[in-house]
């Protein structure tokens, strides 16, 4: 007995953790900082942490009422109908729900390259195919309608990422509108706004609801998460905001009790913790500005809580940074073997990361000069 043919599937490569690297190198975990997974350097919302502790005694019950309460709270935050909010086990769970609701076997999705691997993974899990549009490194990974539409060939789902991971570029709502206008009526344009809180760009929810001068649409959906700005990556909580016409679909495609009791209670507390989000966003903006100014490498403009830097041999640089106690993301798995992605940390973490990267790059430059002189 064997599983079905999975030869076309790829494994998701997560950023390496402190415990994993410390064990591998035989060192104390306290020697390391992790800037590899775009996590919140201030930890979870304090209100959410309190809610998690208080919820411990209620986890024997299914989260029906808290699931409803959080759905209502998210709907209120975005001024949409609760039926438009699809809670999920992380943003990737919301991607799965959209795949279930849209894709027939053999239908394709169109995804950015480089980009989040799970867009394509979910399509393949649901017996669909994957095609790509390329975001050009030399054009600063600019997201334009022409780039997407030139690759479009009738795919059922088109994924846009704003801010884009791993570059941090964004896409304007007028560009999203044009892509939706010029794709087929049966194509859903999904705007992944996992890092939306960090960006100076309006949410595509305006397109669903016909706000800010746009006409209301039934062919756009938005993805959001509690993992980044709210600091709840460990409880796995995200959601999709879908067109109003889809009200009946969620109950038919979601996993029963799609978000756990603890996740829902944490989300209910976090969504009102504006102070924590504001602090987190301010830290990210300061950190990415510092890295752009002080890293001795090309650093792309970013609207996320990370920056992308060109360092030559990313795998070697990342390994040498680990020796110095700094864990970053080698972007070879994104198809960018010359780049690393560095999460925005606290002021102290950011300064340490910049110092370490510059030291590694200076050492590698000296090695090359010595080889040339020899």
Automatic annotation (TrEMBL):
It catalyses: L-histidinol phosphate + 2-oxoglutarate = 3-(imidazol-4-yl)-2-oxopropyl phosphate + L-glutamate. Keywords: Amino-acid biosynthesis, Aminotransferase, Histidine biosynthesis, Pyridoxal phosphate, Transferase. Transmembrane segments: none annotated. Its cofactor is pyridoxal 5'-phosphate. Gene3D superfamilies: Aspartate Aminotransferase, domain 1 (3.90.1150.10), Type I PLP-dependent aspartate aminotransferase-like (Major domain) (3.40.640.10). SUPFAM superfamilies: PLP-dependent transferases. One of its GO terms (molecular function) is pyridoxal phosphate binding. The modification N6-(pyridoxal phosphate)lysine is found at residue 228. Its EC number is 2.6.1.9. Pathway: Amino-acid biosynthesis; L-histidine biosynthesis; L-histidine from 5-phospho-alpha-D-ribose 1-diphosphate: step 7/9. The keyword ATP-binding does not apply. Pfam families: Aminotran_1_2. Residues 31-357 form the Aminotransferase class I/classII large domain. GO terms for biological process: L-histidine biosynthetic process. HAMAP family: HisC_aminotrans_2. Belongs to the class-II pyridoxal-phosphate-dependent aminotransferase family. Histidinol-phosphate aminotransferase subfamily. This is Histidinol-phosphate aminotransferase. It comes from Natronococcus occultus SP4. The gene is hisC.
């Amino acid at each position: 007995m064997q599983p079905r043919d999975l030869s076309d599937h790829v494994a998701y490569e997560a950023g390496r953790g402190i415990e994993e690297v410390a064990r591998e190198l035989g060192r104390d975990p306290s020697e390391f900082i992790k800037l590899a997974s775009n996590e919140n350097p201030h930890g979870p919302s304090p209100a959410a942490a309190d809610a998690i502790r208080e919820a411990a005694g209620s986890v024997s019950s299914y989260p029906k009422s808290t699931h409803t309460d959080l759905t209502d709270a998210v709907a209120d935050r975005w001024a949409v109908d609760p039926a438009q909010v699809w809670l999920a086990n992380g943003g990737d769970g919301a991607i799965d729900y959209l795949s279930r609701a849209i894709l027939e076997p053999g239908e394709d999705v169109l995804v950015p390259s480089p980009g989040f691997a799970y867009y394509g993974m979910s399509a393949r899990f649901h017996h669909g195919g994957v095609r790509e549009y390329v975001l050009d490194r030399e054009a600063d990974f600019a997201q334009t309608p022409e780039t997407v539409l030139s690759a479009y060939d009738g795919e059922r789902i088109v994924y846009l990422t704003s801010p884009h991971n791993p570059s941090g570029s964004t896409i304007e709502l007028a560009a999203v509108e044009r892509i939706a206008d010029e794709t087929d009526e049966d194509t859903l344009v999904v705007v992944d706004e996992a890092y939306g809180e960090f960006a100076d760009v309006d949410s595509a929810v305006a397109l669903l609801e016909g706000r800010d001068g746009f006409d209301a649409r039934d062919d756009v959906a938005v993805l959001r998460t509690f993992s980044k700005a709210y600091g709840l990556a460990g409880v796995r909580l995200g959601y999709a905001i879908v067109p109003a016409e889809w009200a009946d679909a969620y109950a038919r495609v979601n996993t029963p009790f799609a978000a756990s009791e603890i996740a829902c209670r944490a989300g209910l507390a976090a969504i009102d913790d504006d102070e924590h989000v504001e602090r987190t966003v301010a830290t990210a903006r300061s950190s990415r500005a510092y890295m752009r100014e002080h890293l001795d490498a090309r650093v792309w403009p970013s609207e996320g809580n990370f920056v992308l830097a060109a360092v030559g041999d990313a795998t070697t640089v990342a390994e040498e940074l680990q020796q110095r106690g700094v864990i970053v993301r080698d972007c070879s798995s994104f198809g960018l073997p010359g780049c690393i992605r560095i999460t925005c940390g606290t002021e102290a973490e950011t300064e340490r990361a910049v110092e370490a990267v510059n030291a590694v790059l200076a050492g590698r430059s000296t090695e090359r000069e010595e080889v040339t002189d020899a």
